[in-house]
Amino acid sequence: MLPVHIQRNKFDPVPELARLRLEQPISPVSTPWGLTGWLATRYDDVREVLSDTARFSNAPGRRNPRFADLPARNGFLLTYDPPDHTTLRRMLTPEFTVRRMNRLRPRIEALVTDHLDAMARSGPPADLVSDFALPIPSLVICELLGVPYADREQFQRLTGTRLDMSLTPDDRAQATIEAREYMAGLVARQRADPGDDMIGMLIREHGDEIDDFELTGVADLLLIAGHETTSNMLGLGTLLLLRHPEQAAEVRTGENVAEAIEELLRYLSIVHMIVPRTAREDVVLSGQRIAAGEVVICSLAAANRDPAFGEDLDSFDIRRKISAHMAFGHGIHHCLGAPLARMEMTIAFPALLRRFPDLRLAVPFEDVPFRSYTFVFGLESMPVTW
Ligand code: HEM
């Protein structure tokens, strides 16, 4: 049985999660992959845990001796604590400024147009996931990282295999090894001749502070963190908008697009499982004592619908003026790619709805295959017609 925080009832967290938030906001949890700890479901508790790096650590070695030998600076920023986190995040942040993102904008617009053209050319039906929601974020990451055009197909195939939960763990592990090897090669080439993209910039500006192992880890994290998340938001977000035609109409005309994206992020809260935090000392949260060394798992989906955070949060309403949802996390690990993800969605949703004003499901809603399990919630496929 899956733990309650990664079960899902189509768009919604399961009702049990709301019951826990009300009756036992810090509750014992154990996962099929052997992690036991405490599940935090209230907005205030989640925010407190994510804000407080003095009392909660992200380092995997603290919660599992299996990871104790992992080099601390492996590039996986999410598992860093300060001061290493501060150092690496400072190097990466300039790559995600609005100015840098604006440089990517024309490329993203062109990618979106190209994929819509291809869908129009092939005619209905289409699979919105494989024809639109998956390839766009994947190609955007290629732009960002500087993956040469000639390699993109191979690179996308490897990424697809890594993320495909219907394949065996061995197949996925093999694709991960190959993708890491590819990335290590890319880093080595950039070291010899740094390009204008992100890895090239990091080498030019911080080449003596960051080694190739760490750089390969950074590239790998960006690929994984930026790919599946945005693509699942595009797929699920489109489906949710189609279920609310009057709200989709506003997005189509360009009204309330920014608000719609924040509400889609909050309502869907697709990241089921963020990095578990380990208490560095004894802590009390909502009256429950958590001993030093114990793990806290924060449910962003439960927190983002907590009545203490706002009114009627189980309904989807793009006119809601929300601020401070935690779909991108909170605190020092708040999503580095948030400006990029927001820009991709801001371009993609209105363009899709405008190109196909009559877009609709090609199968009954009940037959749309939602993913049964992954760390990030999404759709397997989404047959559409117009
Ligand atoms: C961190 C969500 C897109 C890169 C996070 C966290 C969340 C999140 C919840 C915090 C996890 C934690 O605290 O354990 C999302 C969602 C996205 C998205 C919902 C899409 C809608 C992206 C993109 C990129 C990216 C496009 C990069 C290309 C990262 C990185 C971190 C992160 C590097 C770690 C930051 C740190 O540890 O300081 N994201 N993300 N994400 N995300 Fe995203």
TrEMBL record:
Gene3D superfamilies: Cytochrome P450 (1.10.630.10). It comes from the Bacteria. The lineage of its organism: Bacteria, Bacillati, Actinomycetota, Actinomycetes, Pseudonocardiales. It comes from Actinocrispum wychmicini. Keywords: Heme, Iron, Metal-binding, Monooxygenase, Oxidoreductase. Pfam families: p450. PROSITE patterns: CYTOCHROME_P450. This is Cytochrome P450. InterPro entries: Cyt_P450 (IPR001128), Cyt_P450_B (IPR002397), Cyt_P450_CS (IPR017972), Cyt_P450_sf (IPR036396).
